[in-house]
Amino acid sequence: MPGITIQDILSEKEAGLDLELLAGEKGLLRHVQVPRIQKPGLALAGYVTNLHPDRLQVLGSTELSYLNHLPVDLAEKNLAKLCNVDICCFIITKGQEPPSMLVREVEARGIPLLRTHHQSSTFISLITQFLEERLLPSTTIHGVLVDVLGVGVLLHGKSGIGKSEVALDLVLRGHRLVADDVVKVRMKLPAVLFGEGMDLLHYHMEIRGLGIINIKHLFGVAAIRERKKIDLAIELVSWEDGHEYDRLGLEEEKYKVLGLGIPLLKIPVRPGRNITSIVEVAARNQLLKEMGYNSAVEFQDRLEKRMAETAWLHSHTIIGDNLE
């Protein structure tokens, strides 16, 4: 997993972290490896077994108050034991003043000590979101991402199959474009994939024969959105005579992205098929599945029940005729 230095976090301005350096400048090149934080409450009491040194350690009012109420010799002993774990960074919230013993300890060991004026809950939310965006895996996919009735639909397939044309038709029907041509996919905790457009291509779409168009300018801000959770992947494939396509919807395939599986549908394309309507219905059907209703499974259950009833009636008719 990639890391980010404490220096990068300290110099970040757009995330609104509001951080300043108090001590431990020698350790600014230390790395944070995971997008989670820790509040070292028990560690201040001397229990460091479950301490994660690669996480940011947030010290709020409770932690500092506890530290100040300990006997000086015990507080220094516990701090020395805590810093001996080689913590990547301490962050004090609510603009509080750090205890002098903490400043001495981090300076001696080269552990950065930062401060923010945010409350602990606010800062934890901000820093977690920032670290998730910077640390969690990401990739790019050649395709189109649209928001259809709240369902994030990823359209992909070979070049020229008609992905952008389908997306444009969906926009004309009132749905929203997220990204065209290149979709940047990021993993979010616990196991969710979000897609967004590249900075250069945002809101733009390429239509062969027409060129590059700006969806935001043509249809307004209601026709676009910045990012969307990917709920369904649809692969557009060329129709092949003689090929057996799924006709019941019982086959459940997955499209793998960053190790996670997205429900996958393969829709054959040929003249006369309204692909836009099929994609729209697929999104509605996905909503039903997420609510626990699967029409294909229900149809199969009804069919099997009807076959069982017919077989039972047929067997009893035969037995009855033999008895006569």
TrEMBL record:
Residues of the HPr(Ser) kinase/phosphorylase N-terminal domain: 4-131
**Which residues catalyse the reaction?**
142, 163, 181, 247
- Enumerate the spans annotated as HPr kinase/phosphorylase C-terminal domain: 134-302
For this UniProt record, give its keywords in alphabetical order, as a comma-separated list. Answer: ATP-binding, Kinase, Magnesium, Metal-binding, Multifunctional enzyme, Nucleotide-binding, Serine/threonine-protein kinase, Transferase
Choose any GO biological process term that the UniProt entry carries and state it. Answer: regulation of carbohydrate metabolic process
Q: What class of enzyme is it?
A: transferase
| Enzymatic reactions | [HPr protein]-L-serine + ATP = [HPr protein]-O-phospho-L-serine + ADP + H(+); [HPr protein]-O-phospho-L-serine + phosphate + H(+) = [HPr protein]-L-serine + diphosphate
Where do the segments described as Important for the catalytic mechanism of dephosphorylation lie?
268-273
Cofactor(s) demanded = Mg(2+)
Q: Which Pfam families match?
A: Hpr_kinase_C, Hpr_kinase_N
Quote the record's binding site residues for ATP: 157-164
Q: Where does Mg(2+) bind?
A: 164, 206
Give one GO molecular function term: protein serine/threonine kinase activity
Q: Which InterPro entries match?
A: HPr(Ser)_kin/Pase, Hpr_kin/Pase_C, Hpr_kin/Pase_Hpr_N, P-loop_NTPase, Ser_kin/Pase_Hpr-like_N_sf
**CDD domains membership:** HprK_C
The UniProt record lists the EC number as: 2.7.11.-, 2.7.4.-
Positions of region (Important for the catalytic mechanism of both phosphorylation and dephosphorylation)? 205-214
What role does it play? Catalyzes the ATP- as well as the pyrophosphate-dependent phosphorylation of a specific serine residue in HPr, a phosphocarrier protein of the phosphoenolpyruvate-dependent sugar phosphotransferase system (PTS). HprK/P also catalyzes the pyrophosphate-producing, inorganic phosphate-dependent dephosphorylation (phosphorolysis) of seryl-phosphorylated HPr (P-Ser-HPr).
**To which protein family does this belong?**
Belongs to the HPrK/P family.
Cite the record's note on assembly: Homohexamer.
Q: What else is known?
A: Both phosphorylation and phosphorolysis are carried out by the same active site and suggest a common mechanism for both reactions.
- Entry remark concerning the domains of this protein: The Walker A ATP-binding motif also binds Pi and PPi.
Protein name (record): HPr kinase/phosphorylase
Q: Which organism is it from?
A: Geothermobacter hydrogeniphilus
Gene encoding it? hprK
